[in-house]
Task: structure prediction
Amino acid sequence: MRLLFVDNIGYNDIHGQPEFDLQPHAGLMSLVAVARQGGHAAGVLNPKWELTCGRLRLDESLYEELPESIVRHNPDVVGFTALGCNFALVIRLASQLKRLLPGVPILLGGPHATILHREILERFEVFDVIARHEAEDTLLPLLERLDGRRFGDLPGVSYRSAGGNIVCNPGNPLIGDLDTLPHPAYDAYPIAEYGLEKICLEAGRGCPFSCTFCSTATFFGRRYRLKSTERLVGEMDQLNVAYGFTAFLLTHDLFTVNRKKVLEFCEAVRDRNYTWSCSARVDCVDDELLRAMAGAGCRGIYFGIETGSLRMQALSCKRLDLELVEPTIALAAQLGMATTTSFITGYPEEEAADQAATLDLLGRLALRADGKTMGQLHMLAPEPGTALIAQYGSRLQFDGQLIDFNIPLLDAADETMVAQNPKLFPNYHYYPTMLPRERHLFVIASFNSLHSIARVVARYCLRAFDSRLSLMSDAADAWRRSQGIAASAVDMEFFIAFMAASFGRSHHLVSLLRYATSILGVRLAAKSHRVATGILQRDSELRLARCSQILTDIHDCPALLARITRTPDDALLEEQETGGLTCLLIKADSASDEIATFKLDRDTASALAKFQKLKRYTEFRRETMKNGATAAWSWSDIRQLCADGVLELAA
Ligand code: B12
Ligand code: SF4
Result:
C-alpha cells in the first residue's frame, strides 16, 4: 500500500515573524519505519517545509493547495497527526481531501485524537479510523484489515464501521520495550535540505508524575521508558554518519527520571564529542548527575517549573521543592549548560499572591546575570486528558484571543467551529479563573516584551522595582488600565511610555529602554532585509537604511551600559550622574551581523532623519539649503553615506 502521513503544522511566533519548526516528527518517522518493514511504501508530506519554502501559504489557500499536493502523491491511505493546537486545520484539510479522493481512507492519530476519539468520529465523518495511543503495534494489522473495516478486537482502534456505526475497541497500546522498534525513518524527510543545526531524537516515553494540567501520563502512561544506551548512542551515530549531526535534541518529557540509566548513557556518549539537550525536573537531577551530563555533552536542559507558588505546586500536583530551583539553575549555568525555565499562569485556582510568586521567581531566573537561562511564561491551555479538564471542562470560556503555540485560525468558518466546540478545541478556550483574564494576558505580554530586549537593560529596569517582576507588573498594569490600553496591545513601546510616565521622559531608564528596543528592531530588520541593488543617481529615491534607526534626545546609552555592566550590583544610578542628552545612530553591519552605535550631533541626526521618508538628493538639498542647515550635504557625502550603508536605494 502507498501510505502517506501528513505532518503537523507547528508554528512559532518570533517577534511577529512565523517560523515553522522543521524538526521531523518522531512518531511519524517511527510509523513509517514500521510500515516499510511491513512491505508498504510509506512517506511523510511535511507542510512546514512547503510553508518555509513559500510553496504554501498559511492562509485559506492552504485548504485548497495542501490537499491537492497530497493527491499528487497518489496515496492509497492518508494518515494525519494532530495536536490540539492545530486540530482545526487538520479537520479542514482532511475534509477537502475527502472531497478530492472519496475512496481513500483517512487515518488519524496523536495525543489529541487519542483522548477525543469518540467525539471526533461522531462529529467529523471525514475520519475513518483513529489509532489511539502508541500506534507502532497497531499500524500493520490496521492496514491489513482496512478493506472492509474488519478490525475485530484490534486494541486501541476507533473507527466507523462499514455500516456507519462508531466502534471503539478497548485497549491502550503502549510499546513496552522501545528497542524493539525499527530505527526511525529520518529519510522520510529531506533532512539535508532543511539546514538544521540540531536534530531531534526520541529518547523515550511515559512520565510517572501526574500534574493536573498535563496529559502525558494519560496518553503515554505513567511507566517511564527509555531506549537503551546502546540504542540511543547507536541512533546518534547513525545520524552523525548520515547527515553529519553532532548536536541532538533528546525528546522525552522527562529524560532524567532514571538516574542510573542517564549516568550510563552519559558514560557511553562522553567521548563522542556530541552535544545534546533534554527535559528534566529540578527534583530529578542532582549535583553528580548534572556534572556527568555536562561532561557528556549536555548543553541545554528544559525545566518545567510551572509556578513559583508553593500553594499552586501542591494544587497542580507538580509538587516541586521550590528551594531546589535556583541552586539547580545556578549549577547548570556554572557547568556550561543553558536552561529553559517554563512557567504557567491562568490556573483556575491561582490567586494574586500565587501569580506574584511566579513572576518574582521567573524574573530572578530569566534575568540572571550569567545569561544562561531563558524564561518562558505561558497561558495555561486546557488540554484533553488532564485532571483540570475533568474538573473545569464544562465551564470553558472563549474570547478568540490566540495564545502562544495555537495555530492562528485561518478563516471565519474555523473560528465558528472552534468557538462552538469547546470539548474538541479546548486549548483555544480558557478556564474560569480567580484573576481577570486580562491580567493573565497582560503579564504574559509584558514579560515577553521585557524578555525580548537586552537582558542587562531589562535587569537594570527591574531594579527600579526592587528587582521584583511582580511589582513592575502591578505598576505597569495599573497604568495600562488607567490609560485604557488593551493587554493585547502591550509591547516595548508600551513599556517605554509606562516608564516615561513613571520616571519622566528624560530619565535614563527610558533612554535605555528606547535604545534596547531599537537594537532589537534593527536586529530583526537585518534578519529579513535585502538591500536593493541599482545604480545610485542624483534623482534616485533614497531612504535611511532599513537596518538602522536614529534616536534623538537620548542618553549616551553605550556609555551607560558599560557602567552598568562594570558594576552590576550598584544601586540604581542617580539621574544627575548619567549625563546630558545626545543623538544616536544604531546600525546593523550587513557583513558581520554586528550592531554598531554612533553618536551624532543634532544637525547630522536631523539631516539623516529626513531620509526616514523616501527622499531624492535634489529634494533633500533644496530643503536643507532653504533652512540654512549646516549639514547640507554634498553629493559625495551622500555617496559615502550609501557606501557606509547608512542610506540605501529604495527598492
Ligand atoms: C517533542 C514535543 C514537542 C516538540 C515537537 C512536537 C511534534 N513533533 O509533534 C515541540 C517542542 C515543537 C512541541 C511543541 C508543543 N507541544 Co509538544 N510534545 C513533545 C513531546 C515531549 C514528545 C513528542 C514525541 O516525539 N513523542 C514521541 C512520539 C513517538 O509520539 P507521538 O508523536 O505522539 O506519535 C505516536 C502516537 O501519537 C501515534 N500517532 C501520532 N500521529 C499519528 C498519526 C497516525 C495516522 C497514526 C496511525 C498514529 C499516530 O503513533 C506514534 C507512535 O507511537 C510530547 C510528549 C510526549 N511524550 O509525546 C509533547 C506533546 C505532544 N506536546 C504537547 C503540546 C500541548 C505542545 C504545545 C502545544 C505546547 C505545550 N503547551 O506544551 C506545543 C505545540 C507546538 C506546535 N505549534 O505544534 C502535548 C499535546 C497535547 C494535545 N492534546 O495535543 C504533548 C502530548 C505533551 C503534553 N501532554 O502536554 N512539542
Ligand atoms: S508536566 Fe512533566 S512531570 Fe508533570 S506529568 Fe507532565 S511530563 Fe510529567
